[in-house]
Each structure stands twice: as structure tokens, then as C-alpha cells.
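Extended Data, panel c. Modelled sequence:
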Amino acid sequence: MNVVTRIAPSPTGDPHVGTAYVALFNWAWARKHGGRFILRIEDTDSTRSKPEHEAEIHTALAWLGIEADESPAMGGDHGPYRQSERKATYRQYVDELIAGGHAYRCFCTAERLTELRTFQKAAKRPTGYDGKCRSLQPDESAQRAADEPHVVRLAVDKSATTRWNDLLRGEIVIENENVDDQVLLKTDGMPTYHLANVVDDHLMGVTIIMRAEEWIPSVPKHIMLYSAFGWQPPIYAHVPLLRNADKSKISKRKNPTSVLWYQQNGYLPETMVNFLALQGWSPREDDEEFTIGEFIDKFDPKDISLGGPVFDMVKLDWLNGEKIRKLDIEELADRLQSDGWAGEWHNDELLKILPLFQDRMKNLKDFEPAAAYLKARPEPDLEGLAKKTKKVDPAVLVTVLREAAERLREFEGHGDDEREAALRLVAEKHEIKVGALFMGLRVAVTGSVASPPLLPSIDSVGLDESLARVAALTDRLAPTT
């Protein structure tokens, strides 16, 4: 099977998770069939397109492992491909459309179009171009084009109906009377999305277009263009939009939407690929955790669900934690260092202490603050301790902690089982729950009520320093006279 897929993001802002979600499906389908996946930068909006945003698109896709292929069919031997650099090609095809009566020049000013739109809204009519310039004779149109600013519009047959079979949605029917005479070429000579993508998709041999469902209303315009050029349209598959928890379209007001935000906040790229795949697709088995290779092997566009996928941050954190726990300690240490999350910890230190933290990490950025108590004496969470030990008299807790410190010194060098047994005897002697004793020691040594296992933490901090921290805490807790 010859498979060519693509994405055509606009470099007008941060690389969106929605773009990555669509890119993933297109990339995986091409990889599965040994085809080509093409990245095309839609930078025809000269006022909003920025080089830095294009660079961020490349960074985001590279981080996810989604790599584009070269496309000699585009007239070059390397990518990426920028639509702003292909104005002459689009101009050629626009002239062909005008000559064939499939498009026409429009000389209406911005002021007239604004007045038209205002009138249509006031009259509660559908907004859209009224076809004023469509009746111009070809000679007059060509003569005026030499001196007057103008755009080129698609000449839509309003009496016709457009039908096509969407791979995911079956037959879709749209009456052309509801389709606007779309601008194809702007006054600055730049093409719009509609012209540029149809021309480029044909020249690049794209066989299937997987994109968001919000593009469904534009398909009639594209099919009309394919028909006007005498080209065969590709397969269309319109995937559901990502949603917030309230089912609204995902937006940065409710969820971080930049791919780079997740990179900068300690998520693993393989987690994001796994999570994005599950937004619109799921394996036929129940296992929701899989590798990139497993996803490629199992993926079929026909299995994409049309239900509105919810971008669930809780599930993402769970999945990221699962991926972290399955890393070898050496791999986790390398990730922390290479991604800048290791702080001042050296590799040999990381290998020793990471077993304390790996099972508790939801993302890579959790490590450094969690491990801070190993290098510097922390401020104890007295409020948290008070809540956890509220049934224990403070004076009794101080006594128990001091006696527990003595037992820890006495059992220095012994195994965890023996030391834990000794501490339990202290709790039993003073008739308090062993959990309260351990919580006091935990807050003293680590500063937190939620931390790695107590005895390994004491060993990592060092017994002398740990006992000094216990003494400091009991001095603060001891009742004043």
C-alpha cells in the first residue's frame, strides 16, 4: 500500500497538543506502511507567522519522536516545506482556475465587505460574499487587475450538492448554497489554506488526510478544486477534537495546550505519545499502556473513535508515573540529567538515591524538590504533623521521639526489620500508634508528611544528621514552662 500523509501547521503560536495528536496518527500510519509523512509549514499569514514558532514546531515534534520525511515530489530534496516559498506555483494554478471559469477576481474593498457583513447580520442572514464581482466580464476583470488590488475567489456552483465518504463518518452531504465563494489568493499574492493545501497535497501525492473535524465544512471547497483541476481527491478522515473535562474544545484557559509545556514540566515524550494516541484511539485489547512501536503495529485509522476525547490531566499524570516506574535506574538518572531535572546531583549519587523516589514520581520535575532534604536540613511541616498526630499528646510525642532516637543509635548498623521492631516497641510502651511515631520521625528527617520510606531516608541522610534533626524538632515541640 502506497501511503503518504502530512500535517500543515501554522507557525502562529505555541505548538498545540491538537496538532501533535493529529500528527501522531498521520505519522504512525505512514510508518506502518513504509510510506512518507510530510511536514508542511502553512506560513501564508505573513502578519502572524513567526520563525520562532516554526522552530518550536520542529522542537515539539522532535521531542515526541515524530520525524518528517523528505519529499522530492515537492521540487526539492529536503524539508520542511514552507508555503510562503511556493507563491509562483500557486499563482500558476490560480491562473488555470480563472481561465477555466472556476475562479474569479474580486475587487471589493475591505470597507464594502465590512458593510456587507454588518447588513447580513442585522438582517439575520448567513454571512458570506454576495458574488458582486462574479459577473465581471473576463476582459474587464483582467484590465482592472493590472491596477487594482484584488483577491481571487472560488466560483462555487450554488445549485449543486457535494458528497463524499469520510473514512470515519461515512457519507457526508453539504449543499453548496451554504458554501461561500472562498478567497483562494489574497491581495499580497499569498494563497489561503484552501488553495495551497489542495495544490500541495496533489503535488506531494498525499493519499489520506487525517485532520480535525472542524475542517469538515471546508471539504466541499477542496473537492471543487480537485474537480476543477481534474485531480483525484485523497481519502478524508476527520478525527474528533480534543476536549476539556466540560466537553468544550480544549483551550489554554483550562488545560496547558502547548506541547513544549509538557516537555518543560517533566513529562516523558513516550508518555505524551501514548496519551495522545488514547485520545482518539484505543487498542482492541484493554491495555492502555504501550510503546511507540506497539502503537504503530496496532494502529488503524478505522479504529479512531468519534466520541469527544477528554484531555484528562489526572490520567496523564498516572500514565507518566507508570512510565517512570518502568525505567531502569540508569535510564532514569540519564533522563534527569539530560533534561535538566537532576539539579546538583551527580550520576553516582543519583544511582544510589533514585530507588527512594522512583515509585513516588509523577514527572521528572518531582525529583529535585523531593530529594532536597538529603542535602539540606528542611523546614519541618509542623501543621501537617499536627494533623497526622492530633490524637497524641504533644508532650508524649516529644518523649517518644527522643526515645526512638536513642533506639536508632543503639541499633545503628542493624537491618531494617530489627530497627523497625525496636521503634514499634517504643510506640507500644507509650501506648501510641506506631504510625504517629513514624510520622514524627518522617517530618523530622525529611520535613514532609509525604516522603520516601523512613529508614532508607535516615540511611541516606546519615544517622548523625538524622538524629540531630529529630532533636531539633523535639526542641520545637517541647512544651514551654
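The longest strand covers residues 36-41. This feature is highlighted in the accompanying rendering.
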